[in-house]
Amino acid sequence: MFWNVTLELLKGFGATCYIFLLTLVLALPLGLVIAFGSMSRFKPLSAAVRTVVWVIRGTPLMLQVIAIFYGPYLLFGITGFNDRLLAVIVAFVINYACYFSEIYRGGIQSVPRGQYEAGQVLGMTKAQIFFRITLVQVVKRILPPMSNEVITLVKDTSLARVISVVEIILVAEEFTRKGLIWPLFYTGAFYLIFVGALTLLFRFAEKKTAYIKV
Amino acid sequence: MEYLRVEGFRKKFSQTEVLQGVDFSLQKGEILVIIGASGSGKTTLLRCLNFLETPDEGKIYLGGELLSDASVRYSDRELRQKRLKFGLVFQNFNLFPNYNARRNVSLACELLAKARVRAKKRELRAAEKGLAKWNFGKILREAKAFQREEIAKSRQRAEELLGEVGLGDRGDAYPYELSGGQQQRVAIARALALDPEVLCFDEPTSALDPELTGEVLRVIRGLKGRTMIIVTHEMAFAREVADRVIFMADGKIEEMGSGEEVFGRPKSEKLKAFLKRTEEHEW
Ligand SMILES: Nc1ncnc2c1ncn2[C@@H]1O[C@H](COP(=O)(O)OP(=O)(O)OP(=O)(O)O)[C@@H](O)[C@H]1O
Ligand SMILES: [Mg+2]
Known about the structure:
The complex is a heterodimer. Chain A has helices at residues 2-38, 43-58, 61-76, 84-109, 113-121, 126-156, 168-177, 182-208. By secondary structure, chain A is mostly helical. Chain B is of the alpha/beta class. Chain B has two domains: 2-97 and 195-282, P-loop containing nucleotide triphosphate hydrolases (Rossmann fold), CATH 3.40.50.300; 100-173. In chain B, the strands form two sheets. Chain B has a six-stranded mixed β-sheet with strand order 6-7-8-3-9-10, with helices on both faces. Chain B has a four-stranded antiparallel β-sheet with strand order 2-1-4-5, with helices on one face. In chain B, helix 6 (210-221) links the parallel strand 7 (198-202) and strand 8. The structure holds adenosine-5'-triphosphate and magnesium ion.
């Protein structure tokens, strides 16, 4: 019995991990693009990007998932779109990219101007200054807020069930319908272990960059 | 013969005209000291010389040739070439915290060496072009050897420079492990690594505790023979090392002359008042 439940939950947890990883892999670079957009010296672009970020951060992720899934039908009467998992991924990537972009922006702007200038007077190119000097400093600075955001993402994956994407909580709920309550609480263990591993990973990364004192 | 000539530098920030037509020239190997009250435009002048700021007007001549003209827009590439003629030591060091002292000094050299290696590769490839079959292995081997040699040279040079500023044994230390005086000495070594024609210092000791200024000034003194421009509030030091002194006030050169003239026989009222103020400050 316990074994069966565990296997079933693991299947659901697979979907959870899939949403988590795909969101992370896509949102991390997209966030950087958005960050550069919001820092652009071209005012209309930065204003537009900041507005989008405001809307995304200002509304619940659950609402965004629903909007992405039902939006095409409600707005344009498009019916072919019913890939639930895709809708979840799109909503998550946009949402998390916006949060990441603000973290990046804070990190990039917290590197003192003098660092760029020291690179410039040494004849370095913009790319050399970014990749050799500022990037590592930015990474070091954003590790703590990033670890927060990434851990939140692990748990936000449970929002996928609002459009019936099968993930671990939804699987557990199936059991409650059959009269088994404990699997629902058992899911907590999966999250705890996953988050625990991530915490260790981030702690390791912070240790690795401890030599950079900024 | 004049080596460096600055002609008609003007710079405006929104409303205020921070530089209102600055002209001066310098011989090769001379030390120019710039003094003046806070806000008189000394930093802005150095920043313009190092192309961190573009003056609204003005020209720089170096070695008898026009180096830059504010009315011309230069590409990033050209600007980088021109920047290499000047070095700048900042008031607050600006060392790269992610590299140790040795790498701080050698980084720029290594990056330039990489560019030379790329050029060399192109050259080797071009030389092989005439042949029926390219010898990729050989090109790769030669380029690799050349790269190793160049990088080793940069590191070697960094090691020497650290020795020159008295930090030969601290090459592995990260900036945070060094005192302010040591950090500034690394910054000086870093500026020397590219062997600039003119080395500029912006108040190199004013971020330091008083007991640490001595070691930095000693290093700068040891560089005598290089063409240098030093902005400083250390009047005793200025008087000692200066071949020529400029006193700036409100974006203009108020008085210019040898150390003896400017400190010993000041003419303008502003300079007299300034010297009096700093004297009171020092005692
Ligand atoms: N980027 C800037 N934008 C606007 N104003 C500036 C800028 N940089 C400098 N200024 C102004 O220009 C004036 C001259 O500044 P500068 O830093 O050149 O003076 P300074 O002689 O180096 O003074 P200090 O001895 O305090 O270092 C100051 O009034 C300053 O406020
Ligand atoms: Mg200044």
